[in-house]
Specification:
The chain is α/β, with parallel strands linked by helices. Helix 3 packs across helix 4 and helix 5 packs antiparallel against helix 6. Helix 4 links the parallel strand 5 and strand 6. Strands 1-2-4-3-5-6 form a six-stranded mixed β-sheet, with helices on both faces. It has a two-stranded antiparallel sheet with strand order 7-8.
């Protein structure tokens, strides 16, 4: 369902008992809410939690920002590498405000916040800006940003920067997105499988027969790579959070 949050149309999936303790799941760069698998969600629901998934702005079925154009990623990356300001159509702080807006719209005063990758960066900002709304923070494969931290390996960087195959777009079922033509889905799913295999944990490998159906489900739902570029620019534009996190009154367990 779509709700109005922080002045935007945000796609949300809300499952479990309305009175149960809420868990908000925030996915990473370019990933849709369905990347949190349904079995995982049902496991949490079975334990009495209210589980809220959402498409971040500019991805999936949530409102997009195509009117801002597509940033020059190479130029942004060069400025970031030389510690120069990076301009982005919106910020990670805006995305944190989106998530808090979703909680407001659903009547959730405070929740357990789980963020993966970019979602973990958004979760950190929620803890910094609104600690009273955060019951706990679970941060998965993420970073506080800033300079001097280890970066991706050369292999991972190359995989992340590799262009996806060209696809023929079809109108999306909602929001600003499009869907790839079904004839292009296999090649696009193969591209994403290779990327996720490179950046995934070697200790928790997913067999292709499990990964491919989930990716094809995601692609059938929406495909909006321009939004991914804008999200990545927002990551590069964000200042480091290490000092603020050390000093904040965020929840600790």
């Amino acid at each position: 369902m779509q709700i109005s949050a922080n002045g935007l149309a945000i796609e949300v999936d809300d499952q479990g008992p309305a009175a149960g303790p809420a868990i908000v799941l925030i996915m990473g760069l370019g990933m849709q809410l369905v990347a949190w698998s349904e079995p995982f969600v049902q496991m949490l629901v079975a334990r009495g939690f209210r589980v809220i998934r959402m498409d971040n702005r500019d991805i999936g079925l949530s409102q997009g920002f195509d009117s801002f154009g597509v940033p020059n990623l190479a130029w942004a990356g060069m400025r970031h590498a030389f510690h120069l300001p990076v301009h982005s159509p919106y910020s990670l702080d805006d995305m944190a405000a989106d998530t808090l807006g979703v909680m407001d719209a659903l009547g959730v005063g405070a929740a357990h916040i789980v963020g993966a990758s970019m979602g973990g960066m958004i979760a950190q900002l929620m803890g910094l800006h609104a600690p009273q709304r955060v019951l706990s923070l679970t941060l998965v494969m993420t970073t506080p940003g800033g300079y001097g931290l280890p970066g991706p390996t050369a292999r991972a960087r190359a995989a992340m920067l590799k262009r996806p195959p060209r696809v023929r777009g079809l109108p999306g079922p909602g929001g600003p997105t499009s869907r790839p033509d079904p004839r292009d889905v296999p090649a696009l799913a193969e591209h994403l499988m290779k990327l996720l295999t490179v950046i995934g944990s070697p200790g928790f490998e997913q067999p292709p027969e499990m990964m491919r159906p989930r990716l094809e489900q995601m692609l059938a739902r929406a495909w909006h790579p321009q939004g991914t570029v804008r999200q990545l620019t927002a990551i590069m534009a964000a200042p480091g959070r290490s000092r603020a996190l050390r000093e904040c009154r965020c929840p600790r367990k």
